[in-house]
What does this fold into?
Amino acid sequence: MTDAVATVTARQEGKLPGVLGFEWSEVRSGSVKGRFDVRSQHLSPNGYLHAGSVVAFADTACGYGCLHSLPKGATNFTTVELKSNFLGTALEGGVACEARLVHGGRTTQVWDAEVRSEATGKTIALFRCTQMVLYPRA
It folds into this structure.
């Protein structure tokens, strides 16, 4: 486990990403990879994978990537916009996500993520978000 993976894993303990069981295999500047096993807490009452679980997963991946891609002097970030297109679902098994930095500016970052079923390899969702980079107040 890399230091970055250990850091985000510890950071999410007791928070939504930890409660949902998100696991990370790669966290580095410009790229994040992770997965989770579909459990009942990830499903909506109709039995399908809840869109909120998918968005939380993709947004978390992009957020961890943003943290590890902050420009010099920046201390944090916040999501200012996100969008997701849902193309499929998973009822069981694993779900994987790969997030990548599309734009890394001084004041904003744009991230894309693809969420896939591990069993079929089919895309569940395409996700894009914009992060506002935060600096200490003078």
In short: The chain has a mean pLDDT of 96. The beta strands are 23-28, 31-37, 76-86, 94-104, 108-117, 123-134. The first helix runs from residue 3 to 11. The helical segments are 3-11, 16-19, 51-67.
